[in-house]
Amino acid sequence: FSEVFDDRLKARRALVAERRASLHEALPECGRIERLIGEVGSEACRRLADGTMTDEEAASFASGAKARIMALADEGARHMEAAGYPPDYLDPPYACPTCRDTGYVSASGRGVKCVCHRRMQMEEIFKDSGLGVFAERGFESFDLSVYSDSVSQERYGITASPRANARLILDGCVSFMEGFGDRARKNLLFTGGTGTGKTFMCGCIAHAALAAGYGVVYQTAPRMFDIISEHKAQAYRQETRGDDSAPNAYGEVLGCNLLIVDDLGTEAPSAARYAELLNILNARRMNGFSYPCKTVISTNLELRKLKEYYDERVWSRIVGDFALFLFAGDDLRVAGRGRSPRAVT
Q1: What is the rounded distance in angstroms from the CA atom of residue 267 to the CA atom of residue 221?
Q2: Which pTM value belongs to this model?
Q3: 222-246: per-residue pLDDT in tens?
Q4: Are 211 and 138 in contact (CB under 8 A)?
Q5: 3-state secondary structure of 283
Q6: H-type helices in 215-295, by residue range?
Q7: Which residues contact 133 (CB under 8 A, 6 or more apart)?
Q8: CA 46 to each of CA 32, 39, 49: distance values in angstroms, whole numbers, following the listed order
Q9: 140-173: b or e for each residue (b if 16 or more CB lie within 10 Å)?
Q10: CA-CA distance, 79 to 67, in Å (whole number)?
């Protein structure tokens, strides 16, 4: 989202320049005062940098220059007030006053994403996942009542009711986020039929992670493998032509705090893609020793099908590093249950 914040800052600078030119045309005295402020500031910097003054003289000189600049600024403000200009005419408000449209704020001596930045990420994730407003309240949006309360192992493949099963999954995912910084806590693998809530739960987890200040990347499996292909093409361009213009989306996949891969198994099969998936899982596993770096994967494939679909190394990594949650129940997109067909997938 750096372009969004850059555009905001550019637009604000352009507005200030336009207003300043208009003000100086209407009130030439304000233009003269602004030039004087610049001259006083420049002279103060030059004198303080030449090293000819003692520390005491430099402090006194700097104090005098500051007082002169403040007096000139007050004089200019009085001219503007008399002409009916608002006090903030040359200092229009930022879209986000908290971060001043940079997207970052300081916390504990380091830069962290502002609330507005995290909100943009959240909206983008929900747009990509097709969840819309349904996951905007996080885990509170996960409605257990849409699941059947009937027990039928023959129909659902589990000994509990789909609702009881969904409640266990919800509790497990809440616990996952509460212990997100715990290095020993496993990643999550969601399996189950279509329309049983896997993608919706991914959105709930994304919401919770963003609200906690973590960086989140949500991608469908086909899109993630496209990013890998684009990364390889970009690496080739860098090597052959020195072209480094493309954003490093691949780096975000490897290094973000939370990677959500939706619909694993819907990508075009190839041995190269399986190797790349293993590389991603291994890289994120190593990153997890240094900082919170978790992965959530959803798939319609059963666990035994995963072993058939991917090679032994990928399957072994998933089984070893991921906690399995089996979503069960009727296809809620077909059943409707008062929800949008895209609300639960």
Answers
A1: 6
A2: 0.66
A3: 888 888 887 777 665 555 544 444 4
A4: yes
A5: helix
A6: 221-241, 249-255, 271-287
A7: 126
A8: 21, 11, 5
A9: ebbbeebbbeeeeeeebebeebbbebbeebbeeb
A10: 19
